[in-house]
Write a structure and sequence with these properties.
This protein has 150 residues and is an alpha+beta fold. It is built from 4 helices and 5 strands. The chain has a 5-stranded antiparallel sheet. β2 and β3 form a beta hairpin. The longest helix is centred in the middle third of the chain and has 24 residues.
């Protein structure tokens, strides 16, 4: 059963990754796909769970890809600053002056891992009149930068 779910999650990812136009979009697609698949698996039951998992993964990939595609260097700097300096449970908001897109990021959990300090977060984006949301985790690297890990 798990083998079928894994195959159903991986195959669409590779099919969709050919449509991605850059690393930002690919990272967003991966994060969104994982989160969507996990959420979908919690919704369905029995045979419907596999379908819900696949649909969740595809929907999450599309949403994550959209956010990743629209973020630029300024937005990534704001995300890093939020992860570095903002207390858990406190949101940071910004508007990108070049794109006009609005973002709201809230660290939701901080913990230590073998990689160093890690933070879970929720990122809300208002892009072109559409609201999108991503749940993710990032860990601080040895050079001080933050790397999204899921």
């Amino acid at each position: 059963m798990w083998r079928s779910i894994l195959i159903l999650l991986i195959v669409p990812f590779f099919m969709l990754s050919g449509c991605a136009t850059g690393p930002k979009e690919e990272a967003g697609m991966v994060i969104g796909g994982i989160i969507g698949g996990v959420l979908g698996s919690q919704v369905g039951s029995g045979r419907g769970r596999t379908t819900a998992t696949v649909i969740g993964a595809l929907a999450g990939s599309a949403i994550g890809s959209s956010i990743g595609r629209n973020m630029d260097e300024l937005d990534r700097m704001k995300m890093s600053a939020t992860l570095e300096t903002t207390r858990t449970g406190v949101a940071t908001t910004w508007t990108n002056p070049d794109t006009g897109y609005d973002y709201r990021m809230e660290p939701t959990r901080t913990y230590e891992s073998t990689e160093g300090p890690c933070r879970e977060y929720v990122l809300d984006a208002e892009i072109g009149g559409r609201s999108e949301q991503i749940y993710g985790t990032a860990c601080r690297q040895a050079d001080g930068s933050w790397r999204v890990i899921d």
